[in-house]
Amino acid sequence: MQTHSTQNSDRFKPRKITVESEKQYLSIVWADGHHSVYSFEGLRGNCPCVFCRGGHDKMGQPFELALFMKKPQRLRKITKIDQVGNYAIQIQWEDGHNSGMFKWEQLRTTCPVENGLIDADEYDRS
After folding, report:
1. Which H or E element spans position 97?
2. pTM score of the predicted model
3. What is the pLDDT of residue 8?
4. DSSP state, 3?
5. CATH of the domain at 78
6. What are phi and psi for residue 5, nearest 5 degrees?
7. Strands 14-20 vs 88-93: parallel, antiparallel or unpaired
8. Is residue 79 part of a domain?
9. Is residue 105 part of a domain?
10. Are 41 and 23 in contact (CB under 8 A)?
11. Distance (Å, rounded) from C-alpha 17 to C-alpha 3?
């Protein structure tokens, strides 16, 4: 029998999602209190759909963390975010692309803040 601590399950449970269109980032405050920040450029570049990944054999590969630090090629816009069950979000981009499902676990484990790439305190917490 496998048991999970509440703290571990809270690690992958979002409490608040904020889209900062002008500042080009999405932030997630998790149930355990951690604050993650993801650039639009990094999210779009790491889209987990089969088309963006280049085939079914490349599905499920880890995000490229460097893309979250990449200078934007252009301004991006998130037009809508839908929750997919209790495990993911689906982002609708201004160009109509919306087939990638960003799983909570993958977002949290590749968090640019937890991986030391950025400091969440540099971003406004709304």
Report:
1. none
2. 0.85
3. 62
4. -
5. 3.30.2020.30
6. -75, 155
7. unpaired
8. yes
9. yes
10. no
11. 28
